[in-house]
């Protein structure tokens, strides 16, 4: 009879250990999900578009990271891309000053206070990332992102909201 009692106690200990491991893994997955929701990878190519073209930034994120990946085939001289974030009301001005800044400045006027965040210019097969503080964004504001490489901004745009 004692033999069954020892077996029961060992089974109970094993059950408790498995339960603890299960709950710890759930906590780990929850924190990983939180980290993943504070970052996004955008694809860009020779078709002058961002995929996806709409970004939702959770307001609970402290920082948000955008990674831009260029999957096109044309040479960088003809088809470089960047990612520039600004308010919708500042879109045209940022596009103009970015184009005028030229490739040495990654087509971003580095002194332009209307630019919230931006990546460098990238060519085929390259990636670039930028991390910015979510606290500088407001939920009531409409934000846009665009590519400021020469001639791309009228077509290559997307939206960003904070929720």
In a few lines, what is going on in this structure?
This protein has helices spanning 2-36, 76-79, 91-101; strands spanning 39-44, 50-51, 54-57, 63-70, 84-87, 117-118, 127-133, 143-146, 157-162. It is an alpha+beta fold.
How many domains comprise the coordinates? 2
Determine the strand fraction and express it as a percent band: 25-35%
Radius of gyration: 23 Å
SSE pattern: HEEEEHEHEEEE
Helix content: 25-40%
Q: Order of strands in the sheet with the most strands?
A: 3-9-8-5-6
Distance between the termini: 61 Å
Helix and strand arrangement:
Layout: H1 2-36, E1 39-44, E2 50-51, E3 54-57, E4 63-70, H2 76-79, E5 84-87, H3 91-101, E6 117-118, E7 127-133, E8 143-146, E9 157-162
Parallel strand pairs: 1-4, 3-9
Antiparallel strand pairs: 1-2, 4-7, 5-6, 5-8, 8-9
């Amino acid at each position: 009879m004692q033999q069954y009692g020892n077996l029961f106690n060992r089974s109970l200990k094993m059950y408790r250990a498995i339960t603890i491991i299960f709950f710890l893994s759930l906590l780990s997955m929850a924190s990983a999900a939180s980290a993943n929701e504070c970052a996004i990878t955008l694809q860009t190519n020779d078709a002058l578009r961002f995929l996806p073209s709409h970004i939702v930034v959770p307001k609970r994120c402290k920082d948000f990271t955008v990674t831009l990946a260029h999957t096109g085939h044309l040479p960088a001289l003809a088809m470089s891309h960047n990612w520039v974030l600004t308010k919708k009301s500042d879109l045209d001005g940022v596009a103009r000053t970015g184009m005028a800044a030229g490739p040495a400045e990654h087509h971003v006027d580095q002194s332009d206070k209307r630019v919230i965040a931006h990546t460098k210019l990238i060519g085929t097969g390259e990636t670039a990332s930028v991390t910015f503080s979510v606290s500088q964004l407001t939920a009531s504001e409409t934000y846009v992102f665009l590519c400021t490489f020469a001639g791309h901004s009228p077509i290559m745009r997307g939206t960003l909201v904070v929720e």
